[in-house]
Every structure is written in structure tokens, then in C-alpha cells.
Design brief:
Number of domains: 1
Helix content: 55-70%
Distance between the termini: 53 Å
Number of strands: 3
Radius of gyration: 17 Å
Mean pLDDT: 90
Strand content: 15-25%
Shape: elongated
Order of helices and strands: HEEEHHHH
Number of helices: 5
Structural class: alpha+beta
Largest sheet: 3 strands, mixed
Length: 98
Amino acid sequence: MLKKMISYILLVLLGAAGYFLLNYHIIFSGATVKLLNKSKLTSEYTFINTSNKSVESLMRIDTLREAGIGNVLVEMGRLSEEERESLEEKFNSDPVYY
């Protein structure tokens, strides 16, 4: 009976961890870790390291831009509000999928 309860608890924990990973982008920037809600449940871009990527290359990714990576970059000090708006306008208006 105890083994069955433990297996159910582990199953629930694994399910919760999977749901968490499908629901959040985990953004690393040096020693800083930020969580960003995904716009839909997906496994795309779950773990992102921003320290070795340019701001433009991060903003170019539709999935991250729709989730609000621009606001996170502004919070981190890597981007100004005006630059964020400019890049969002540039990539949102471009019909090419990056």
C-alpha cells in the first residue's frame, strides 16, 4: 500500500514538473534566472541562455517575442523601452518567419 502511494505521488510530481516546463520559458543571464509565461503550452525554447546572444537575435524569435521577452530584456537592462518597441514593430510587421 505504501509503495503504491509513493508511486502515485511521484507520478503527480512528474506531471507537475512536465506542466511547469511546458508553461514557462526559463531564461538564464549569467547568474540571473527569470521565468516567463509561454503564450501556449509548448516545449519550444524552454531553456534560453541570453548571455551569449544578441538582443536582436532573441527578439527575432516569434515564440519568445509573443511571450514578452522584450519586457524581460528591459528589466535586465539589456534593452531600452524605445528599442524594445522598435524591434517588436520591426519583427511583427515582417511576414518572414525567423
